[in-house]
Write a structure and sequence with these properties.
The structure holds two protein chains of two kinds.
Chain A lengths: L1 H24 L4 H5 L5 H11 L5 H13 L13 H36 L4 H15 L2 H15 L11 H31 L2 H8 L4 H30 L2 H6 L5 H10 L3 H29 L6
Helix pairs in contact in A: 1-13, 5-6, 5-8, 5-10, 5-13, 6-8, 7-8, 8-10, 10-13, 12-13
Chain B lengths: L2 H23 L16 E6 L16 H5 L7 E3 L5 E3 L2 E8 L2 E6 L13 H11 L14 E8 L2 E6 L6 H4 L10 H7 L14 E7 L3 E6 L12 E6 L3 H9 L5 E2 L7 H6 L3 E5 L5 E7 L9 H10 L2 H7 L6 E2 L27 H10 L12 E2 L2 E2 L1 E7 L6 H14 L3 E7 L1 H9 L8 E7 L6 H7 L17 H11 L4 H18 L2 E6 L3 E5 L2 E2 L2 E2 L6 E2 L5 E2 L2
Parallel strand pairs in B: 1-10, 1-11, 17-18, 17-19
Antiparallel strand pairs in B: 2-3, 4-5, 5-7, 6-7, 8-9, 9-10, 11-21, 12-21, 13-19, 13-20, 14-20, 15-16, 22-25, 23-24
Classes of the chains: A mainly alpha, B alpha+beta.
Chain lengths: 300, 543
């Protein structure tokens, strides 16, 4: 009950802040919405049509009331319902985030563990150098390079779009590259910390194999902070990988939010940002819940 | 390999395989038109800007006609020489100075089967003029009403004598939409759907992503050759070009000049340029704020800028320097050499220096920037980061020229939408110098004149410039309602001379739109205005 209330209050508070900030920061949206056709008369008519002459608190109350009834309004530009646009884009964001997370977990976590186990050896050095290098490359440039090599030169994969499984490979690699370095470093750090604990020394003293020590004892204790970290990354992957979405023309929420913000399409921007907030809050709640399963000593 | 490494590798491979299988099972995301069967003739076009709405009377970006010109038609259209040709109207005539009669084409059907007639045309004009249903109504302030004379004849009645009603008819705002569809689905539905009379109909649309068009078998000019056209909206120029290079798209619009050498090497592609662009770039000055309230300073600024070098270097030779402030294809434009071969304010840094000295601006402390009464000669230049026309690069290239004559310029760079917002609003008193791109798509310069030269009665100011000259405003209004062509030309000439004397508007260059085109695309012709493709019904693709 407490968690549910926290969840709802957070979303309402954030939506209010977003609503106020967007409306104040956007200035007069009629200048963008009318473009070359902007005249004082056209602007006045449009403000009336969009309900912009009402006080801000009235506009927010109306927005909230409609949102509670499942109506996030219509895009000022295309006239589509905001909910429909978001529901179309959301699966793509989830797909890209999931595929990227698979790469991050499948490559980053094992590399981090092996780096810790082989601390100071050549493998550790190579793994750390590679992960830092990949994460340091600007994502826009990395994405373009992936397209040039794998699409234009080799012709193996499409340059972008969202037309099938092969379309997700390059954007997923590009997104994963950004989060890979942190995952390797943090996993390695957590593992090194745990591997120096007394109970690990005791486990080794009992004659357990290094594999059993690493996976059976150390990794289980690393999983808790790792889930927190990757949970944060997952939430960020869903709403914040704008550059990758633009380079690969991936129809995700990040690209949508930026397009809506730049176009001063406030209903669409607001709906998209609130969706991203809901995802953040939901993922964090799920991470909290998962603690209970990973460590039965914890109670929410 | 150690046991730990083997197990790690096994886990990794298993995860990847499982996710790949699950992902492949998500057939529902493969509904986008990337993998089309090749048996059908499909044309794929990569556009340089997203299109917000497909609704002719509620669209913001001027790009809409590029994807809607195969779908919608107006009463009249332009050919490749910007001459008027009958389209949904077969003929038209001036009945009296306030009345034009248009004969509507018989036997034309909308994509939903509704027949085209005079009532359908009137319905569209009524919607256009309704502020609650149209954003564009203000542009048609000159239009009083449309009346149905008989089933295939309409009368367009203007408030004042209007010599160029036919010139306004090719505009995308007056594309004719099926009234049945509007009544059935509502106006907002038209943001993502379209029911016109053109050779193609919209079958799928995702805003800012793509539009998929299919040929309309009952098109009145005959069935088109190509089965399907897909327009992809790809903002990033580099990505757009790479997509063209990978042959995923057949046409890429607005390719930056730096890709021209690479494009020339491609055996399967070539460059096409629209012959004369109506897209023009100006610099503007606000003459009501110091130090620009001194005409000598304004003239010095214009004399210090070398447009020719900027056009040939930054724009890769693409930009055509302009001497006359008037839009490129607008009627009454003074000859390009009217003020001399390099225009009224040719590049002459020495003249700029002497004008500034005459105005009392002298560099007393030797830092290269002039001063007067203890104030530095410093101005703010508003520009934007829109990549398509290199406005930012051009603006940056301008700074050294101004610095050279002792003017300090601070560049304020905004996102294009924000920049538009800033330069459109007359409330912005802090503007000093700014860049602006505008297109006047026909020889009738109504919207440009109204927005740039005519004082808005509500604000008492011009909307997109700070000229606010009553004489220029009155002359412009007079020209817009002068039926006699010769008389009108005389007034237009006078207006141009007077505006030039103010030294507030500097024509910089015009820009043809470069297209990368795959050699398999045949029978391609472009309009000048908006640079969209003409005659879709004749387009062909060699497989």
């Amino acid at each position: 009950m407490h968690a549910t209330l926290y969840y709802i209050v957070t979303i309402i508070v954030v939506s209010f802040i977003l609503f106020v900030v967007l409306n104040l920061a956007a200035g007069d949206p009629t200048t963008v919405l009318l473009g070359l056709q902007w005249t004082p008369q056209a602007a006045a008519a449009l403000r009336e049509r969009l309900g912009l002459n009402d006080p801000l608190y009235v506009q927010y109350a109306r927005y909230l009331w409609n949102a509670l009834h499942g109506d996030l309004g219509r895009s000022w530009l295309s006239g589509e319902t905001v909910l429909r646009v978001i529901m179309r884009r959301l699966p793509y964001s989830i797909m890209l985030a999931s595929a990227s997370m698979v790469i991050v977990l499948g490559v980053g976590v094992p590399l981090g563990i092996l780096s810790a186990v082989k601390r100071g050896k050549i493998f550790d050095w190579i793994a750390r150098s590679l992960s830092i290098s990949v994460s340091s490359i600007p994502t826009f440039w990395f994405g373009i390079m992936l397209i040039i090599i794998f699409s234009v030169e080799l012709g193996w994969l499409p340059t972008g779009g969202a037309g099938g499984f092969q379309h997700i490979v390059l954007p997923a690699i590009a997104v994963a590259s950004y989060f890979l370095g942190a995952t390797v470093r943090m996993t390695r750090g957590y593992m090194l910390d745990v591997l120096s604990k007394d109970y690990i020394v005791a486990a080794r003293a009992k004659g357990l194999s290094e594999r059993a020590v690493a996976w059976g004892h150390a990794f289980r204790n690393v999983s808790l902070p790792l889930v927190t970290l990757e949970g944060m990354f997952l939430a960020r992957m869903i709403g914040s990988v704008v550059i990758i979405e633009i380079v690969f023309q991936w129809p995700g929420l990040g690209d949508l939010a930026i397009t809506a913000l730049l176009s001063k399409d406030i209903p669409l921007a607001l709906g998209t940002l609130i969706t991203v907030v809901i995802i953040y809050v939901t993922v964090n709640t799920l991470v909290d819940v998962s603690y209970r399963f990973l460590d039965p000593r914890l109670h929410l | 390999m150690s046991p730990i490494e083997k197990k790690t590798l096994a886990i990794f491979v298993s995860i990847v395989v499982v996710v790949a299988i699950i992902a492949y099972g998500f057939g529902w995301w493969s509904n986008l038109p990337a993998e089309e069967e090749r048996a059908r003739l499909v044309l794929r076009v990569g556009l340089h800007r997203g299109i917000d709405s497909l609704d002719p009377v509620n669209v913001v970006t001027g790009m809409m006609p590029i994807i809607m010109s195969p779908v919608y038609e107006g009463l009249v259209s332009f050919d490749e020489n910007t001459s008027l040709v009958p389209t949904l109207a077969t003929s038209w005539e001036i009945v009296d100075p306030l009345t034009w009669r248009f004969q509507i084409r018989e036997g034309v059907k909308f994509h939903d089967g509704t027949p085209l007639n005079a009532s359908a045309v009137k319905y569209n004009f009524d919607r256009l003029l309704d502020p609650t249903r149209s954003k564009i109504f203000g542009e048609y302030d000159w239009l009083d009403r449309v009346e149905v004379e008989d089933e295939y004849t309409i009368l367009i009645i203007t408030k004042e004598p209007n010599p160029a009603v036919d010139m306004s008819m090719p505009r995308a705002d007056v594309y004719i939409v099926s009234p049945t569809a509007i009544e059935k689905y509502g106006g907002e539905w038209l943001g993502t759907h379209a029911v016109g009379t053109g050779p193609y109909k919209v079958v799928e649309r995702e805003t800012f992503e793509y539009a998929k068009l299919e040929k309309f078998d009952d098109y009145w000019r005959g069935k088109p050759i190509i089965d399907e056209i897909i327009f992809y909206e790809i903002d990033e120029a580099e990505v757009r070009y790479l997509k063209f290079k990978a042959q995923e798209i057949d046409i890429a619009t607005s390719i930056p000049a730096e890709f021209f050498p690479d494009l020339a090497k491609l055996p399967y592609g070539h460059l096409e340029l629209t012959s004369l662009s109506t897209l023009m770039v100006w610099y503007n000055l606000n003459p009501w704020v110091p130090p620009l309230d001194d005409i000598r300073v304004r003239k010095a600024i214009w004399h210090s800028i070398d447009r020719y070098t900027i056009a040939t270097t930054v724009l890769g030779g693409l930009g055509g320097p302009q001497n006359i402030i008037w839009p490129t294809v607008a009627e009454g434009r003074l000859p390009e050499d009217y003020f001399g071969p390099d225009g009224p304010y040719p590049y002459d840094p020495d003249k700029a220096r002497s004008l500034l000295e005459e105005a009392g601006w002298v560099d007393t402390d030797g830092d290269g920037i002039r001063e007067k009464n203890g104030e530095k000669l410093s101005i703010k230049f508003n520009t934007h980061m829109g990549e398509t026309y290199k406005d930012l690069a051009v603006s940056e290239a301008t700074l050294p020229y101004l610095k050279e004559v002792g003017i300090d310029v601070k560049l304020e760079v905004l996102e294009p939408g924000m920049h538009w917002g800033k330069v459109a609003s007359p409330a912005q008193k802090d503007l000093q110098m700014w860049i602006i791109t505008w297109t006047v798509p026909s020889s009738w310069p109504l919207s440009w004149v109204m927005q740039w030269l005519v004082i808005n009665p509500e604000t008492g100011k011009t909307t997109w410039t700070y000229i606010n000259d009553k004489e220029i405003s009155d002359l412009s209004v007079e020209a817009l309602s002068t039926m006699d062509r010769d008389e009108r030309m005389t007034i237009w000439h006078e207006v141009q001379v007077k505006v030039t004397e103010w030294a507030v508007v500097k024509p910089m260059y015009n820009l043809p739109i470069p297209f990368a085109v795959n050699n398999k695309v045949k029978n391609l012709t472009f309009t000048h205005d908006y640079a969209y493709i003409l005659h879709y019904e004749n387009l062909d693709i060699e497989e």
